[in-house]
Amino acid sequence: MIANPFTAQDWNAVAPLFIVGFTALAVLLTDLVAPKQPSRYVPVGIGIAGLAAAGIYAGSQYFAPAHDAFGGGFILGGFSIVLQAIIVVAAIFSLGLYGTIGRAQGVAGATALLLWSTSGAMLMAGAANLMTIFLGLELLSLALYCLCGLADRPASRESALKYLILSSTASGFLLFGMALLFGTSGSVALSALSSPALASNALYWVGGGLFLAGLAFKLSLVPFHVWSPDVYEGAPLPVTAFMSVVTKAATVAVFARFAYAAIAPGASAAILLPFYVIAGISMIAGNLGMLAQTDMKRLLAYSGIAQIGYIVAALAGASALGVRYAIYYLAAYAFMNLGAFATVALLSGENEEGSRIASFQGLAQRRPFLAAAMTFFLLALAGFPPTAGFLGKILILSTNVSTGYPWLAGLLVAGTAISLYAYFKVIRLMYEPHARPYAGASARAPLAYLSLAICLAALLVMTFYPLTPSNVLPLAK
Amino acid sequence: MSLLLILLPILAGAALFGLPRADTRASKIAGCAVAAITFFVPIAAGGDGNFAAHWLSRPFTASLHFAWSGPAYWIVLLLALCTFCAILGTNMTRPRVLIALLLMLEGTMMGVFEAKDVLAFALFWDLMLIPPFFALVGWGGHRETAWRYLIYNFSGGLLLLLATAAFGVLYGSTDVIGTAHQLQGAWAPWIFAGFAFAFAVKTPVFPLHTWMPPTYADSPPPMAAVVSAVQSKAGLYGFLVICLPFFSGAMAQSRWIFITLALISLLYGAYIALVQTDTKRIVAYSSLSHLGLIVLGIFSLNPVAIAGVLLYIVAHGLFSAALFLTLGYVEEREGTRSLTRLGGLGRANPKLAGAFTIAALAALGLPGLAGFAGELITLTGVFQAGLFWPALIALVPIVLASAYMLRLLQDVINGPQVEDIPQRPDLTLSEAFALAPLLAAVTVLGCYPHAVLSTVIPAAGALLK
Question: In this structure, is residue A422 part of a structural domain?
């Protein structure tokens, strides 16, 4: 009889993923036995409960010692847990937005897909070998392709198809890169890639480059960004909100592990430099792209391109503090983006006409609190106090200065200066006196209001109590 | 206690903003009460109202550390007084929102002046730029003005942010305002440049001043009064408490650049003020000229000049707030700011004309009013520092000030009444009470500058140590 190679501890490490995955099955099963006119809150409620349980389970292991599950395929530690927490919170908030749009039918399926996508992202948060990384990425993406096409609009189908084709191409790059890396090191473990002998192997450089290009696509860094505004615009709002945070958080996790743990000593600065250069270009190009937008979702897509540039910049130099600040900024970004999407969702009706920027005109007259909340989130994205965006930028700037990447700090400042105009254009539109202000749909969506309030409070609290997780290193064994 | 001065106005402003049913009278009373509290608390409480709470420990230590000690004390009082008068003197449309913005502006600027930590200073610096932007959006005439204000000042704010991060990394702590230590190293001049750019934009100094005249002209008068009286001092205050104690080496190296720019500001501001026909722009350009003198005083790196600068900061705040409020009243009554259309105000509105005259005379530096002592001491200090020619050149615009201020007075108050302009009633009671404290302070400070000087002389010495 063959002994079971995996211990209870291994299964324990991935238990949160299984909780989320089985919750998705539970949602579908409940839908089978549900009455003809189901309430949309039943699947959403079950989904949120399952996510919360998974989040709590993962969080309870934060102070336990780090553990390599499945022979190093999945590392349970501070880093994976914090990122899983961000992913779970983002998923919960996106589910909360399901109440604002669409018909009740089909919500169960959409909830299940979102949960499976979440479990893929959670796998990526802890993945430490090439196989688990790809497994997580595909689980995340496959569910997302379907989710993008769920809305009953041509733009939504276009979005799904575009995402499917382009993202699959990127996955191909990633997979090819992984194959080459596997060929050179003879192991799928990320840690095997840090062997000094590899630095002289040309295949290692090609493989690493293809791998990073695939990641850059998933992060929508310039020049691999063109898909994201179209996909964001077409996808249903809650899915866009989910995508803008979860995909990026999971990919940042993979990139951080690669950058911190899988680089041969002789190659560390050189192989990653192009990645930081495109992160810097993204800060400028993303913010420039925002200037011309007329749709809020497209604007937030371009804003996301720039924001992810800031997060990647924090990792430049692979300093111990850098990864903490990247996580801090990622958490802040999650809250500000989810808050902004919650506001847009509350203003949008069935057809999402409220996501046009023009419909924000004179908002302050009719919905002063929503206008104030939106202002707060836009200020956060622009890096203004008293939001966590301000402190996050300070922390990233100081990391860049101390690790010898002052040019990234300069690009960050320049990019932010450009972004001011784009964000304040919306703010100004909301507060300018207007004859016929758009009131927005008055959807009964208590969950969306709740997530809005939580995002506001979190951004404020994070500014004055900057908790950056301390036990996140090392990222691989 | 110092935290109260920051939080009370901000929270009161937010509350006022969120109460759509509050009527004008109630919001005015509430606003004045809050401003009055912030004025009397530092006087009654004594001490320096120190408040400190730990904020960051990595990558550098930072605290939320506030106090009204040292050079901040008089500016804090000036800010509270100006806010009080501006709120009392508000008679714009939608006064509730404007009063809310004025209160938030007061709270955030309190944060700037009370901050003892550079990071907290930068935080409130960015915050204080937001209320004037909203005032320009809600009341300003031209679309472009708000953008110009925003882009200029926020670009400065971003460089301030970068400089703060670099300063923190190099120095290890940002909780340093009020101490003095030379920052060494190759990076120090660059960090200084970042700070100096932000401060020079905010002051403003030629050639970074182009946002200022339209902003002051288009803002609602109470907002223009507070912004010109106090917010413009934030840049000067930054030069005094951040650049002087930590970058005096870099300051000495780049001294001639700033002295030249200050002299250009002095002359150029005075010249434009002579030829402008828009009343508010005349005062805006005269402000550019006066603040140029202050920059000159700071870069003379002389304790006497610094003491004069600290006195003149308070004096300039008082009379420029009074000037913008009175010009606002003139514009409300006559419907124009153009000197060619105004005239003969004195006959119909003697009280308004009287208040305007006192403020304008203070601005031109008449002995016995607040402007004189500050100008004199600053110039004395510049002479003492051995800057003979700059001091001599600086005298020219001071003489020109008499010309443009008297021209303004002459054209608004005297002369024939213009036929097609309706003559409206004189100052109302609340308008009169809004101007009275400012003018009283201008007079008291003019006759007895020692009240302020006795405390700013040791403060000036400490800054240069």
Answer: yes
- Pair A441, A300: CB distance under 8 Å: no
In the three-class reduction of DSSP (H, G, I as helix; E, B as strand; rest coil), residue B145 is classed as helix
Q: Is the pLDDT of residue B76 over 80?
A: yes
Do residue B124 and residue A385 have CB atoms under 8 angstroms apart?
yes
Q: Which residues are registered as beta bridge partners of A69?
A: A74
Cα atoms in the 13 Å half-sphere on the side-chain side of B247: 26
Q: Do B59 and A402 touch (CB under 8 A)?
A: yes
3-class DSSP assignment, residue A87:
helix
Give the model's pLDDT for residue B261. Answer: 94
Decide: helix, strand or coil at residue A356: strand
Residue numbers in B near A428 (CB within 8 A): 137, 146
Report the residue of A310, A379, A394 to disrupt the B interface, i.e. the one with the largest count of B CBs within 10 Å.
Answer: A394
Q: Is residue A399 part of a domain?
A: yes
The answer to whether position A97 is within a domain reads yes
Per the structure, the complete domain to which residue A140 belongs is given by 8-464
Residue in B with minimal Cα distance to A465: B55
Q: Which tens digit of pLDDT belongs to each residue from A375-432?
A: 999 999 999 888 999 999 999 999 998 898 999 999 999 999 999 999 999 998 888 8
Q: Which helix (H) or strand (E) holds B394?
A: helix B388-413
Q: How crowded is residue A267: how many other Cβ atoms within 10 Å of its Cβ?
A: 19
pLDDT for residue B272 is more than 90: yes
Q: Check A385 against B127: CB less than 8 A apart.
A: yes
Cβ-defined contact of A394 to B169 (cutoff 8 Å): no
User: Does residue B340 have a pLDDT over 90?
Assistant: no
Q: DSSP string spanning A229-285?
A: HHHHHHS-HHHHHHIIIIIHHHHHHHHHHHHHHS--GGGHHHHHHHHHHHHHHHHHH
Number of domains in chain A: 1
Contact B99, B87 (CB under 8 A): yes
- Cβ–Cβ under 8 Å, residues A438 and A362: yes
Inform me whether the pLDDT recorded for A101 exceeds 80.
no
Across the interface, whether the CB atoms of B154 and A390 are under 8 A apart is answered no
> Quick one: average pLDDT of B78-101?
89
Mutation for testing the A interface, residue in B162, B164, B167 having most A CBs under 10 Å:
B162
Tokens of A174: 């990633």
pLDDT tens string A134-161: 999 999 999 999 999 888 788 888 999 9
Q: Does A308 lie at the interface with B, CB-CB under 8 angstroms?
A: no
* A422-467 per-position pLDDT tens digit: 999 999 888 887 777 666 665 567 888 888 899 999 999 998 888 8
Size of the A and B interface in Cβ pairs below 8 Å: 79
Task: Work out the pLDDT band at A349, boundaries 50, 70, 90.
Answer: low
Q: Which pLDDT does position A351 carry in this prediction?
A: 62
A135 by Cβ neighbours in 10 Å (0-12 / 13-18 / 19+) ranks as middle
Cα A241 from Cα A447, distance rounded (Å): 15
Instruction: Report the length, in residues, of chain B.
Output: 465
User: Which residue type is seen at B437?
Assistant: P
A425 part of a folded domain: yes
Which site among B10, B51, B58 would you substitute to test the A interface, given the most A Cβ atoms closer than 10 Å to its Cβ? B58
Do residues A313 and A407 lie in contact, with contact meaning Cβ atoms separated by under 8 Å?
Answer: no
Q: Which residue of B has its CA nearest to A397?
A: B165
Give the Cα separation of B242 and B325 in Å (integer): 32
- Contact residues of B toward A, CB < 8 A: 17-18, 20, 55-56, 58-60, 64, 119, 122-124, 126-127, 130, 133-134, 137-138, 146-147, 150-151, 154-155, 158-159, 161-162, 164-166, 168-169
| Distance separating alpha carbons of residues A461 and A220, to the nearest angstrom | 29
Q: Determine the Cα–Cα distance for residues B104 and B124; give it in Å rounded to an integer.
A: 11
